Amino acid sequence: CKGCLRSREERLYWLQMTDSQKHQVMHLLSLRKAKIRNRKMEKTETGEHPVQNLLDF
Fold this sequence. Notes:
Largest sheet: none
Strand content: under 5%
Radius of gyration: 14 Å
Order of helices and strands: HH
Distance between the termini: 10 Å
Helix content: 55-70%
Number of strands: 0
């Protein structure tokens, strides 16, 4: 999902996951957000317009 960054499986099984599994997913989400942020920064530094890249995942 582009909004929450969870995979289809993560969304599908969220209610069945243990708290530990949910914490693992939340950690993965923070890594995914950082990766997206870094990609946007690289594109901005290369001269691409940042508005064009808002939805690039």
